[in-house]
Amino acid sequence: MDYLQRIEHNKKSIIDKDFLDLSEQNIKQFILDAKTKYFYFKKDGVNVACGKELDNNNGKFDIEMFACKKLAEYGHEVYLLPENYAVDAANKIKVHGDTITDDRTLELKHTPSNIQSNYRKAKHQATDVFIHVQDDISKKDAIDQIKRAIRSMKQNNKSDINFAGNVYLYFERMDMLSLLDFDKNGNYKNISPRKNRASEKTKA
After folding, report:
1. With b meaning 16 or more CB within 10 Å and e meaning fewer, what string describes 38-72?
2. How far apart are alpha carbons 100 and 54 in whole angstroms?
3. Quick one: CA dihedral 148, 72, 99, 44, positive or negative?
4. Which of 49, 56, 102, 136 could disulfide-pair with 82, CB 3.0 to 4.6 Å?
5. Could you count the other beta carbons within 10 Å of the beta carbon of residue 83?
6. Strands of 128-133's sheet in order across
7. If residue 72 lies in a helix (H) or strand (E), which one and from where to where?
8. Residues sharing a CB contact under 8 Å with residue 142, sequence separation 6 or more, in sequence order
9. What counts of helices (H) and strands (E) characterise the chain?
């Protein structure tokens, strides 16, 4: 199978439901299928779905690769997935996150400042969230925005939302990655990110 055939193969979505509608077993199966049924190539330590590099409107691919490379530098196994959608009437609906990272679904968000909105959107697409913060926002302010998003989601949804998952906050101006582990009720604890491979190489 040549590269163009691999791209065509990757355009066939392996899932047709909104992420929030998936059971735990469905999610496990999706992760297995995403890693084994798509074709990938290796770039900068990241497993990139064939054809993904062609989807670079407004620098989208470059932005996503920046986040993926940052995760890979910290020792995470990252699969950057194809851009697949489910179609509901005239609407294109993204049905899963951007990556499989350490065998978990993860949505990438790139924002100057609106962390609250980006977190809320991301939780409809994946278990874990990576938010690339460009503005000079403190870690405390970023966490406060996530807390507000959780409170808002609790108030506006009749069914219970499981907030369990990791939130990666990358602060561009400080070149700092923070990792928060949230439980199903929206409480969190800080976790130390893995060692940065790039830093290890620099020191060697």
Report:
1. bbbeeeebbbbbbbbeeeeeeeebeebbbbbbbbb
2. 20
3. positive
4. 49
5. 18
6. 40-43, 46-49, 78-80, 99-101, 104-111, 128-133, 165-171, 176-182, 188-191
7. helix 60-73
8. 115, 131, 133, 169, 171
9. 6, 11
CB 192 within 8 A of CB 203: no
Owner of token pair 């582990």: 181
On whether the CB atoms of residues 39 and 49 are closer than 8 A, the answer is yes
Query: What letter represents residue 24's amino acid?
Result: E
pLDDT digits (tens, 9 = 90+) for 8-60: 998 887 776 667 677 888 889 989 999 999 999 999 999 999 999 998 888 99
Task: For residue 68, give both structure tokens.
Answer: 């993926």
CA distance 199 to 193: 13
> Could you tell me if 35 and 55 are in contact, meaning their C-beta atoms sit under 8 angstroms apart?
no
How many angstroms separate the CA atoms of 180 and 169, rounded? Answer: 8
Which string of DSSP letters, residue by residue, matches 149-194? Answer: HHHHHHHH-SS-----EEEEEEEGGGTEEEEEEE-TTS-EEEEPPP
| Distance, CA of 190 to chain centre | 19
Residue 86, CA atoms < 13 Å, CB-side half-sphere: 11
Q: Each residue of 113-163: pLDDT tens digit?
A: 789 999 998 988 899 999 999 888 999 999 999 999 999 998 887 567 789
